[in-house]
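Review this chain:
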Amino acid sequence: MATYREIHGKAIKSLSTDPTAETDAGQIWYNTTSNTFKSIVNIAAWSSLAPINTARLGSGQGGTATAGFIVSGGPSPKVQTEEFNGTGWSTGEDVSVDSYHGGGAGTLTAGLYSGGEYPPGGNTDRTIEYDGTNWTTVTAYPQSLKMLASCGTQTSALYATGVLQPPAGAKQTETREYDGSAWNAGGAYPTGLQAGNMTGASSTSALFMGGSTISPSLSANTYNGTAWTAAPDANSAAQSSGSSGIETSAIFFGGDPGYLTATQSFDGSAWTTEPALATGVGALPTGPMTASSSNAFKVGGNGAAGGGAVVSSVEEFTSSVNVITAGAWASGGAYPSATYTAGGAGTQTAGLGFGGNAPGGVTNTTFTYDGSTWSSVPATLGTARYCLGGTGTQTAALAAGGEIPGTPYASDVTDEYNGTSWAPGGSLATARRGLGLTGIQTAALAFGGDPGSAPNLTDATEEYGGTSWTTGGTLNTARNFLNGAGTQTASVAFGGANPGVTASTEEYNGSSWTAGNNMITARYRLGGAGTQTDALAFGGGTTPQSALTEGYDGTNWSTRPSMGTARSFFGDFGIATAAVCFGGDAPGKSALTEEYTGETTAVNVKTLTQS
């Protein structure tokens, strides 16, 4: 009998800890700590991702797993474009004509969208190209169709079938190939259909599945650039499903009727049932998001939850040796007292909360957080106050500014914490509440806020060296109740009121502020964590209060999973992948703590058994 080494060319190793590299997949080892045999094995699953900004169905899409786009959609026609960076969604350029149930193709920087329903009561033949910045109108589609299937690239796209707008309502068999400048006739599809879906790399290689004449179909066909050839029927009939991949390695999922959860893959010869979507959904975007059957995205649509309501949810399918745990907010230990407008500092497992407005009034209390439980400490702020700024670590924190009872209410007080007690620091030159505060105890940055007199907002920036504050470059937009992230020489400021709620973003380089791209959603009294190039903004006041979370990469904001409870005026600390929000106005004083953990990836290690 052949040995394991002879079959695989590898010996079974004895290891005290499990390997973590994808390249170790298929290797069997003996874990001497657990006394078990283990291996890294492939796993297929759907997981939740950050939602799109605008819920929609019937949009067009294209791109890759780390650079995708969706455009337009319904049921009330939309003009918005959203761009995907592999983690979340940011805003792109609006299109000039709103439509839905058109066809998408191409990539983020070379995208294509054509056709669709164009109310009131008609379809459009408009074709537009995207360069990652702007949409440009190009050669019109030969017919005005909706619910057509599409795939390929901007210079080698394939569109097929579709339906004319009633009263004609005829389902088409036409196939069209786009070469980057003109539409050319291709081989006719065997059956007139609407709402089929297609995936493929170009106009000469594609797989078409499903669609509807009267009811959803199981049929599938492949295209070679000239003619369609019958492929094996799919396992589940569907229309308006989602797709990804190429002709010989494809995946289709969801769709109608009945908001399907079914997922099925095709390897060029046979269909395989894959793990189902978490939530049944129909009217998914047309056009593949990726060219891979092992990585697909379900974006928006209309779902079974809410009786067919349009959704903003996104799910990712992966088939690999990695287990992906989506980013999410989760409940943490309750703050000892229902409090809003407290200050915070530290990390998710070593945090600090101080001051704020509690049931007994304005407080100077201090609490530490270990990642699960808040504990009282005897140290108190030198001055009880709320709406103050906080930064630093659990053993080297800084509290600055805030509001104190009486007139004038804006405070210039600075306190330093050494892990045991608070001591006074240098006073701010500009007393203020609702300020942004970033950096560390010995190199901090204070900016914006309400100085306590009309117009109740300031552009003043001050730098702290551990003893005293000195003047820094002024904000371009004066505002209060903003937040920020980063260091004294590399900070980002975002949100606030001026006096209306703003989405403004600015970056500081140690001497001056420069305008950055706006947040997706304007808000104030919000939370912030992270660095200038990896920041998190969450919650805050809009109308009504918000649970929305956004991430900033140094250039653009994109969506992240929302908080469990909408609120504003809370304490915060941490980094972009491990942030904490505590207390706040939810509405009313709250003791809730939530922890954000960013997406993680780890190899799928399994213990081998005889069963």
About this structure: The chain has three domains: 4-41, 45-321, 342-597. The chain is about 0% helix and 40% strand. The first strand starts at residue 13 and ends at 15.
